[in-house]
Recover the amino acids of this structure.
């Protein structure tokens, strides 16, 4: 399975960027806004996953949520990115996104939880940077990976967290962040990072591997 970004023409790319901006729900972005990906959660390469001795096929189901509610447009935007990350992790012999009978299920949920308007959100994740009020907005993302082996009733669940920061005007960026070339780049990088972390935790769970 491959990332399909290169198949989109100019008009489609513009629409994708517009959709990407909707994934960072705390800000109305302007030409003077800058976007940063938090570096507390980093991409986990396949070499750091625990190797699976006998990988099995899996059906992948992905959903993006905004404050816990399904966001179909965002799901469409990121489904290829998520699928590629699952394939590249090398934990499964085959990854299908269409209904597939008699195989294990892998449900990946990515929930956007705006943090800046929540004073209690500073404890969202130890190490993640919290946006300064009035100069930056911070969006948190909770990735939940639920693996249900074929024929079983109890899933194995792992979670990972990430954040994207957006600064306005001449505001200085918070510490511990990496500037993204665009909102779309930030969202895709965040997605790869957080999904790979959840998959790494899954790979080291003795109930899975």
């Amino acid at each position: 399975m491959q990332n399909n970004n290169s198949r989109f023409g100019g008009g489609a790319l513009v629409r994708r960027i517009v959709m990407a901006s909707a994934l960072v729900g705390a800000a109305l972005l302007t030409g003077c806004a800058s976007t940063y990906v938090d570096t507390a959660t980093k991409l986990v390469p396949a070499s750091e996953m625990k190797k699976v001795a006998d990988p099995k096929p899996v059906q992948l189901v992905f959903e993006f949520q905004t404050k816990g509610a399904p966001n179909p447009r965002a799901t469409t935007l990121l489904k290829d990115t998520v699928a590629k990350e699952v394939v590249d992790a090398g934990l499964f012999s085959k990854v299908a996104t269409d209904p597939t009978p008699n195989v294990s299920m892998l449900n990946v949920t990515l929930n956007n939880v705006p943090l800046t308007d929540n004073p209690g959100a500073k404890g969202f994740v130890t190490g993640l940077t919290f946006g300064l009020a009035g100069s930056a907005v911070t969006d948190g993302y909770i990735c939940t990976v639920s693996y249900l082996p074929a024929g079983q009733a109890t899933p194995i669940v792992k979670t990972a967290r990430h954040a994207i920061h957006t600064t306005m005007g001449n505001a200085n960026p918070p510490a511990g962040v990496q500037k993204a070339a665009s909102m779309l780049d930030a969202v895709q990088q965040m997605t790869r990072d957080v999904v790979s972390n959840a998959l790494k935790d899954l790979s080291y769970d003795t109930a899975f591997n």
Notes: Confidence is low (pLDDT under 50) at residues 1-14, 26-31, 119-127, 130-134.
